[in-house]
Fold this sequence. Notes:
This protein is α+β, with helices and mostly antiparallel strands. The chain has a single domain, classed as Pseudouridine synthase (2-Layer Sandwich), CATH 3.30.2350. The protein is built from 5 helices and 10 strands, in the order ββαββαββββααββα. It has helices at about 35-45, 65-80, 160-170, 180-190, 225-230; strands at about 5, 10-15, 50, 60-65, 85-90, 95-100, 125-135, 145-155, 200-205, 215-220. Strands 1, 2, 3, 4, 5, 6, 7, 8, 9 and 10 form a 10-stranded mixed β-sheet that branches. A hairpin with a 3-residue loop joins strand 1 (about 5) and strand 2 (about 10-15).
Amino acid sequence: MLDILYRDDHLIAIDKPPGLLVHRSDLDRHETRFAVQLLRDQIGRRVQPVHRLDRGTSGVLLFAFDPEVTRELSRQFEANEVEKTYLAVVRGWPPEEGLNDHALSRRFDEYGRSLPDAPPQAAQTRFRRLATIELPVAVDRYPTSRYALLELEPVTGRRHQLRRHLKHIAHPIIGDATYGKGRHNRFFAEHFGCRRLLLACTSLAFYHPVSGEHVHAKAPVSGEFAATLARFGGLQPDQ
């Protein structure tokens, strides 16, 4: 059963669990469970995804019930008018705050097809450090291991933007098998029982396409993410 965060006659927001694809993809042809299908079966109504979350990312996922609302919400996302907030646990201690504006090459489209001649796309991610922790364990080449909890606000919405931006500043997200560090991923899996990507969309704020009201959908971190933060003790977001 998917947790419903917001619902009215025009749209619905759920808390997507990690490991669940939004919809069928050529990249994961063997998968049989998708958020679109599960939500449709749960509420008995067709839904259309307005945006995407990576398979490993959990949190707020927005759907619409009709094409007109889908188009308007998609326009808001494409125009960077939707306020998005994420939490992530990363390796190391980044600066207290900053703006990453590293342009990202577009190597593949959303179907996994190669785009070898596509120019880099402008991309911006704001980040703020919420908490840090240092463990007396030599996971890498240092005698201790540092980790941080970050709040991320993607200004743009490029493919794998948050994961690629954090890799670019040498603070990859824990649990990221593509852009992360295998040693640290294995350390979290073996010592904390956390095998997921520690990235979650905790908030979406936008203007309702029909009523014009400001809608703010929130999802708390849960499951392995919340359990890992609790195990760390001091690595907790400010309330």
